[in-house]
Model the fold of this input.
Amino acid sequence: MITLVFEDEFSLNFLPLSYTRPIYELRCGAYTLVERAASSAKGSRLALACRAHLAALTRRARPGVPVNDVDALDDDVLLVNGRAVPLKVGLAELATRGVAWVKDGDLVACLLKEGEVREAWSLIVGGGGLLPKLKELGFELREVEGVEVLKHPWQLIALSPELLSVDLLHMPRGGGGVVEEGALVKGDRSLLVVEEGASVEAFSLIDLRRGPVFIGRGSVVEAGSRVVGPAYIGRDVVVRGARVGEGCVIGDSCRVGGEVEATVMQGYVNKQHGGFLGHSYVGAWVNLAAATTNSDLKNTYGTVRVSTPKGRLDTGMLKLGCFIGDHVKTSIGTMIYAGVKVGVCSHLHGFIARDVPCFTIWAESLGRRPVELRLDSALETARRMEARRGVELSVEEAEVLREVFNASRGEREEAGVARGEFKLRA
Done:
């Protein structure tokens, strides 16, 4: 059997995070959604379907996995929604002939024969209209329990702490890393995993009383740091005297300073300095300058509202921070209000009280009009930042950024972003 994870029309709800990656490559808990789906459908081969502009980059990220390749689907196919999060049911259990499993009107999974896959292929890669097609093919729609189907980006933040507590207990228990004498570990020591090549320096604190902590290979928790579980720290991460609060997911190759709480970092985030980041989601290759801080609580203690394709919605969350797309850069002292979305490759200065479009230099609170960041300038900045980590900006990634630049023109026009030279000083 082949497990084919696909995107549907709701991928647009997760912008700007989903501009530069398929929705199933977003992190929720210790894993990406596609890793979670693959684990839940053990024994099957993985295949992927995504928006056309992301296909080449996805192939590069997951070598050997068929992407948008119907000819590779030469067996029965378990079609799985990339927004599905299996909680109490394994996806393999949904491989039932003639049944399309749904949750609150969303397709979760269904088992297709090779011929049925080909007949529905344009809808699978096109991202919509699958349920009517499945009805036409004679499938019975049944409601499934024990699965969450994400509809909005704030659910990635809300669900992560709950998933972490389970994920970390079931991760491989290998260790081999170093916890130096003088490091303080509170709680059940068996809940701490420090992989080989990782280290926890003396005069740091690991608090396991609220949940487990995982520290990946090559990572360092430097002296003066405090890590509170549940927390996942990926590979080659440096925790630089930081307070990492419960519910944090720190992707590979991040640098973390200051205070971080209940936040997901996709990977390669540079937050070396002081400043607070709470209940937020941060994309890859983001640089948060010294004293950059976000709000995750309104003065009124009311629930936070967030803009969506259907207008502003009440998230129902008392504590919610911001959503930062890939390759965003902030200047010193940047302050980001609760519920704000920051688009891909934007540069921020001052107070950010409303959503920022992609490829925009934003300094509204400093009396400057927003100006479009030139594509060539954004690409050169990306090359420079990635080179500092020994990574070369790939042709595929550069092409995705070009696509996003073009696709987001309407956002900039609607927000009144001008073209021209940006000057912070007169």
About this structure: The helical segments are 33-40, 55-61, 114-126, 130-136, 154-170, 375-388, 395-407, 409-414. The chain has two domains: 2-151, 155-342. The domain at 2-151 is CATH 3.90.550.10 (Spore Coat Polysaccharide Biosynthesis Protein SpsA; Chain A). The CA atoms of residues 306 and 312 lie 5 Å apart.
